[in-house]
Write a structure and sequence with these properties.
Layout lengths: L2 H19 L4 H26 L7 H27 L13
Helix pairs in contact: 1-2, 2-3
Subcellular location: Mitochondrion inner membrane; Mitochondrion membrane
Organism: Metzia longinasus
Membrane topology: Multi-pass membrane protein
Length: 98
Amino acid sequence: MTPVHFSFSSAFILGLMGLAFHRTHLLSALLCLEGMMLSLFIALALWALQFETTSFSTAPMLLLAFSACEASTGLALLVATARTHGTDRLQNLNLLQC
């Protein structure tokens, strides 16, 4: 495994571990998701550059568009949660009370 592949896979794994183990605030969960998407974007962009074909060149931009949609939806949920519950702590959220 090259150092570049190791750095992107370790960044993705660290984001996944942060999402799995440090679930106290919704903002920290959103930041972990954005870190995972950023590492996926950079890895996919370098993979497309490595193959030098035009069919792979649109995949990073499509992933970036979905990442922007995910970020805007997450921030909208964060604002709505902070307005209704007064905090962004994930332990205060209960789907049965909605």
